[in-house]
Amino acid sequence: MAAMLPSYEQLGLFYLGRRFDLGANTRLNEPVLYESRDLVTHAVCIGMTGSGKTGLGITLIEEAALDQIPVLTIDPKGDLSNLLLTFPDLAPGDFAPWLDERQIQSQQLTREAAAEQLAERWKNGLAEWDQDGARIGRLKSAADVRVYTPGSNSGIPLSVLKGLRSGTDDPDEAATRATTVANSLLALAGVTDTGPHSRDHALVAALLGQGGAGQTDLPRLVEQILRPPFDRIGVMDLESFYPARDRQELALRFNSVLATPGFDIWMKGEPADLSTMLFDSKGRPRIAIVSVAHLDEAHRMLAVTLVLNAAVEWTRRQGGSPSLRALLYMDEVFGYLPPVANPPSKLPLLTLLKQARAAGVGVMLATQNPVDLDYKALSNTGTWFLGKLQAERDKSRVLDGLEGVSSSWTREQLDKTLSALRSRVFLMHNVHEQEPVTFETRWALSYLRGPLTREELRRAIGTPPPQQSPVTPERATGEAHPAPAASSAAASEKPVLPAGITEYFLPSPVAPAAYEPVLYGSALARYTDSKRGVDVTAPVHAVTSVKDGALAVSWDDASIIDVEPDSLAPAAANPAARYGALPAAARNAKSYAKWTDDFEQWLVRAKPLRLYSAPAYKLSSRPGETEADFSARVQQAARERRDVAVEKLRGKYAARVARATDKIRRTQESVAREQQQVSQQKTQTAVSLGATLLGALMGRKAVSMSTLGRATTTARGVGRSMKEAADVAQAQERQRAAEEELQAIEAELQGEVQDLVSGAPDAAIETIEVKPKRAGVEVRLVALVWKPL
User: I need a surface site. Which of 84, 221, 280, 517 has the fewest CB within 10 A?
Assistant: First the structure.
């Protein structure tokens, strides 16, 4: 199957469109291919409304997905959800549900006729750009598209307010994140003064910078504003810096936010963790669309800032890579990265632009006006996609910026080009190439329906409307959710334990209504395998139920939890809570010695360390690394190996391509000398995909794309004077021979590409299990623990 793909799709080249001759107002038959790793140095797309920015952005996202590169998109307008609308069969029935009713009425068509017309239009549009339903099918199978909707059930709810505290151990990174999150939360609460001297900001940032269990959500933050876990801020005592009565006013502001109808959805759903947003459980890449079009400005800023912070933290956990690992695309950056103001989103965006390239994470920002972007952001972008601009001042600013980077074009040339651009035609300036290029964007594989309503989004995702969603018992009946079976015989008071039995409570962010008894075990297990170079000590924490009967405890039924012994509480979070019945075996102090021995045996027998291996790439997973994360690392290693192979191809062909193109140039000059009219009447012939591939492969090393364009230009159909006919014929024959030599190089390159793809190592992943020896297991605690319900 891989050998059937076009060469550019096997070498990490993005098919963006075709060259466009602005002078002749004509699209040329020369594909524009963009090297994926050029996005590591980031990109910006600037153009007025209607210039085609969103279409270009969707094209880039599609190409990244086809190259198995995950994409995180932030969508303030709601257009990127169109990536859900991919129809490989191009059947009218696929398009019918997404027809515009007004358009049907204006054209006086039946729905069936309009769907057939639209399907035919899309099929013809794809064919015009050498694409078909099979390429849509490859896109659909290459990446899963997920639309996250913070604060809404219309898509996949994103729990951005559950991870307010940074998970990093680096104090500088934690402080930076606390600062930006504090700004966002205060703006949400209506606090406008968030400058460096704001005591509101100082208090909230200090609370977010604290460690400790449970300090991860907004309700807990409100509690800590009233009762902070420290008594000093800076060198001043807390009451002098921020008295309790004033803190209560701030807490009331946040409480009002929490009390807003429907606000609870902000703390539900999937966590804002890029490891799961960008990859599924098997490591398959995703297109993760964070749609904020349904939110007001304050909520948008909050959601965008928290997602960007999550992107910064994920990026810093990745190793270095020269190849594109992931793409972050923001469809409209207006207001999030301004040149003067400092909104909460600005710091994480600038951090990504400055640091993400080292990890192979590319950032692409789109906006209508260049004045929307901080100059430091523009200076960190290697590729500029420039569309039609609305105002002269916008064009002037762009020209000022382009003059500051290396370019073979003069300001006058750039000015003339920018003035001639039309919809879907862009000027691309890539610092990795020798000169800018103008091109028209290709036909999108996704159906560009426009922004989807909430109901349409639910339909596209395949989720039922709210009234059909599964409901909890308390919503269905209006009554409280019944307690689990373990607490059905709950006593009104906590059981009194005999001497010699110590009890603890699992931490809870809220006061629970009831507790049930469970057995908690914690141990350190050492896993060693000299053959594979494994020597790891990992903590294991588990809980299992305690029952009446002969087999009171079975560790085989245990659940692994992430609660260290130091995090267990000595007292209940709610003194008025109900308690489940305590089985007789749990009241016997001698039982715990046996359960401790059983726990140790269970760890040796049933809890091996599971590792993953990719032998072809000599990679093994790290302890705690999931299969999805390891699979993503293997995919990145494959991309890096491919890019190294491409670099070798460049070195191998550079000298030959340079000689062949120079020979063509000299023969063309000879033809021009022999025939006076050739320069006025020469025609552009169709450029083969091989020539374009050769140009994309060699562009930065040996020959520019424009040289290849000239290399495939012939002067046919031009009248020759009888006196010079023989000389012209000889010159043209030499030119044809030189072009045939280049074509032979192209054919050889195609063979090299096929060999490169067919010889790529198998990325199969194997599972390895390493069991701990009994001498390597250190049981730290086995005790009775009350689990909150």
Answer: 280
